[in-house]
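Data card: per-record layout.
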Amino acid sequence: MPYRRNPHTTDHNSHHNRSAQNHSATQAVTPQLRDWIVAQAQANVPAPTLLQAMCDAGWDENVALDAMDTTLREHLAHTAHQEGLPRASALPQPALQHSPARIDVGDRTVEVLVSMALPRLVVFGNLLSGEECDALIEAAAPRMARSLTVATDTGGQEVNADRTSAGMFFARSENPLVQRIEARIARLLDWPLDHGEGLQVLHYPPGAEYKPHYDYFDPAEPGTPTLLRRGGQRVATLILYLNTPEAGGGTVFPDAHMQVAAQRGNAVFFSYDRPHPDTRSLHGGAPVLQGEKWIATKWLRERTFT
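The structure for this 306-residue chain is written out next.
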């Protein structure tokens, strides 16, 4: 969908050739700009398109990103209060305040490839080494079984035709490899290690997929109280790509009109501060068209997962 240019940004066009520092110092985020950002989001304009529109109108990229992030978070909180939506949770927060290209996580430098405000989504590069990807696959392969989904009526698990992969779970800190990766994730996302479920490895053969779904537990379902007893709501997901399929297999975000390619060693992180579709965290695994796909998934909870 084409964007509608904000009439309140025209005064800044004459400054287009100034430095980013001058832009940051002089560009005020006005109520009119906030209203325009909200209007674009409500019209389902993809975040990258919205950001590009602001940059084309003369906005410094860092100022535009901060304005989008703050405005959309405040709007979501206000809407939630008005509509009586579920309460918001604290969230894992990668250190992205100054739009870094890389983040030092102690034993590795991780690249920041894409960052979006709504949904809150970050694509990381170089999170795992090739050797770590191969080792996870090798350790998981003998333990694979048909993937299950949460049975929302009981809080248990069940086979679901929407999910046609095979999978397994590592216990938290099960071996040195898993322990090292979990510690890296905890540092990258600034979230306690014990607030995460065990690392799940999934295998998608040709034709396998996972149709769009939400990872949070639906408060309206009778099995949800049972699921919440183990650590509260899920608040974020990290999908790590362990190989690169020959074709297909990307992670799709229908509400953001976005697809993240499955690239070995990379990962996509997204968070959802409340169990509600307004978070735009609907996502799925596109069908594998050629080759196979291996991923590892880390779900993060509100509190200690037992």
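Known properties of this structure: The chain has a mean pLDDT of 86. Residues 155 and 223 are 4 Å apart (CA to CA).

See the next section for split statistics.
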